[in-house]
Give the backbone structure.
Amino acid sequence: VQLQASGGGLVQPGGSLRLSCEVSGRVDRIVTMGWYRQAPGKARELVATITNGVTTNYADSVKGRFTITRDSAKNAVSLQMTSLKFEDTAVYYCNLQTVLGPISGIWGQGTQVTVSS
């Protein structure tokens, strides 16, 4: 199983980006897909998750600005980010949790998001 993340880049404050993560390979039932981020010198932190394709959870710092959605047909998850701030700069990682998989989930490679003027 592999997770392929895309969509990162450089954006000005107030701008928008859309991250996508697609699962390849055979997976059992997906429970939760999510996005985490790690800024330089900081621990990895939760950004947003979506469970059973319905229940969403967001970090307080991104509520109202970011939206997570899941495409069940494609086993993919997206993160629409708007009103980006300098402090959103980080490497963003997608994560997949399945019924039979590891509790910590499966991680994709990161994609860099840089918010800079």
Remarks:
- The longest strand covers residues 30-38.
- The chain has no helices and eleven strands.
- The mean pLDDT is 95.
- The two ends are 37 Å apart (CA to CA).
